[in-house]
Amino acid sequence: MAGHGTVAVIGLGRFCTSIAIGLTKRGAAVLAVDISEHVVQRLADELPQIVCADGTDVVALQQSGVCAATTQAVVAIRSQLVASMLCTLALTEILQGGE
Asked: Which domains does the chain have, with CATH numbers?
C-alpha cells in the first residue's frame, strides 16, 4: 500500500478506527482525524499521524493537513449522517481547490 498517497480517515468510531489501524499495519500513510481529544490521545500510539479537528469545518480540515496530503478519504462520523455529509462536502471543496 505504500506509495499510493495518504488516506484521510475522519471520525474514529469503531468502523473508521479499524480501517485506520488496518491500513497503517499494511504500510499505508494514514492521517486520522477526530473531534474528540480523548479519542486522539487513546489512539496516538497506534496511529502515527492523528489530529484533533472538526471534520465538518473546512478551515479545521485545512489546518489539520488533510488538504496538503490526502489523495483518498474515509468518512464515518459516529452516528451522525449529517456531519458525515458535511465533512464529505468540506473535503470535496478542499480537494477541488475551492478554498
From this structure: 6-97 (3.40.50.720)
